Structure formats: structure tokens, C-alpha cells
Amino acid sequence: MVLNHGIPHDFLDTVERLKKEHYKKSMEQRFKELVATKAMEGLEAEVTDMDWESTFHLRHLPQSNISEIPDLSDEYMKVMKEFALKLEKLAEELPDFLCENLGVEKGYLKKAFYGAEGPTFGIKVANYPPCPTPDKIKGLRALTDAGGIILLLQDPQVGGLQLLKDDEWVDVPPLRHSVVINLGDQLEVITNGKYKSVEHRVVAQTDGARMLIASFYNPGSDAVIYPAPALLEKAKED
């Protein structure tokens, strides 16, 4: 969890406000209709295949698709473009810190991510409405992320994110203006298991709607992913 990420707190407050306004105006009713449809089909007791979340996705790199997302106000679109740039900058600073900690050549991870056209970067904007039966359904089912570096902006008030540690689920408490950093499967491969891709989930809540913005900085679509030779050599020596 990072607090000194350099992103102004008032800017993050603006992102939070616009996100909640957009959900109320454009997404809340659609989610309620989806849930009602499931109930009419008699599936309310069999919802293990459904995440209790309402989402949309933005692609930032290699080419933005934000203009194709329906129902975004001009202000929200402008702010999310700026948000993507700020998170991209933060994500691009992290690989060199990881290289230093691993004892490999500076810039190695960036090169591994690059491929022919550069890394990919996308944003998932998610809302987790209050759930009447959280014992039957997860906000987001347990999984690991397939990619590289994941930056999470949590709801500042409503929790729900959990990580699996030593076979037990551990809460990640919300901390206003912080960014939670998670590492994905491909980074685990590149680092030869030195960094682990952590299994996580979101627990549905009965009280309070929860928001989450997850940014995914991943290797390019044509990047070839394999363990860093320097780390393989270290493993042999150990």
C-alpha cells in the first residue's frame, strides 16, 4: 500500500466523486435489472457464477478507447484521461524498484514488458452495490491477476478486498488516498517466483456500496514471457 505516490489527494477525490455520479446516473439501474432478471429465472440460489459487481473497462495503451465508452460526461472523460496518465507514470516507476530489489539490471523488467509495441495499460472501474445475500455470492470471486503490475484505488470507506495468506483470507483495510499494489502471474514468471501473484477476492457487503478502480500495467501482447536468466543463475547458485 503506497501513500507517497505523488497523485494529488484532491484529484483522487474528484475521481471518486465523478465515478459515483456516473454509476448512479448510468449504471445502477442496469445492475438492478440484471439482478431482477436472474431472480426471475430462479437463479438466486445458484449465483456462484456471477460476480456482484457493475463494471466498465477503459483501454489506455497502446491506444485509448475512452471516447467509445457510452454515457461518460465530458468532465469525467477528461479526468479519467488524466487519471490514466498519472497511474501509467506510477506503474512505469515500479519495475526499476523491483529490479533493484531483485539485484538484476536496471531496466530489465521494462524491456521484458515492452515487446514490439510497448506494454498495455487498462483500467477497470467497478462498483459493488449492497448485497442482500453476501453468504451466497462474492463481490469478485477468488483469482490471481494474469498480467504484470496492478494498481488499486479502493473505496475510502467500505472494505471488502481480501488477500489469501497462509491459507487464510486477510482483509485489506481501506485507507483514503492510498494505492494498493498487486503483482500478477506474468511478473511471477519473469522474477522466477521471487515475487508472487497473490490470490484475492472481494467480499460482498450488505451495507454500503463499494467502489474500486483497478489499473493493469501488463506486458505487450507480443512480449515473450520467461524467467530472467540472471535469476535462474542465482537459483542455481543457491
Automatic annotation (TrEMBL):
<keyword id="KW-0408">Iron</keyword>
<protein>
    <submittedName>
        <fullName>1-aminocyclopropane-1-carboxylate oxidase</fullName>
    </submittedName>
</protein>
<comment type="similarity">
    <text>Belongs to the iron/ascorbate-dependent oxidoreductase family.</text>
</comment>
<dbReference type="Pfam" id="PF03171">
    <property type="entry name" value="2OG-FeII_Oxy"/>
</dbReference>
<keyword id="KW-0479">Metal-binding</keyword>
<feature type="domain" description="Fe2OG dioxygenase">
    <location>
        <begin position="119"/>
        <end position="219"/>
    </location>
</feature>
<dbReference type="InterPro" id="IPR044861">
    <property type="entry name" value="IPNS-like_FE2OG_OXY"/>
</dbReference>
<dbReference type="GO" id="GO:0046872">
    <property type="term" value="F:metal ion binding"/>
</dbReference>
<dbReference type="InterPro" id="IPR027443">
    <property type="entry name" value="IPNS-like_sf"/>
</dbReference>
<keyword id="KW-0560">Oxidoreductase</keyword>
<dbReference type="InterPro" id="IPR005123">
    <property type="entry name" value="Oxoglu/Fe-dep_dioxygenase_dom"/>
</dbReference>
<dbReference type="GO" id="GO:0016491">
    <property type="term" value="F:oxidoreductase activity"/>
</dbReference>
<dbReference type="InterPro" id="IPR050295">
    <property type="entry name" value="Plant_2OG-oxidoreductases"/>
</dbReference>
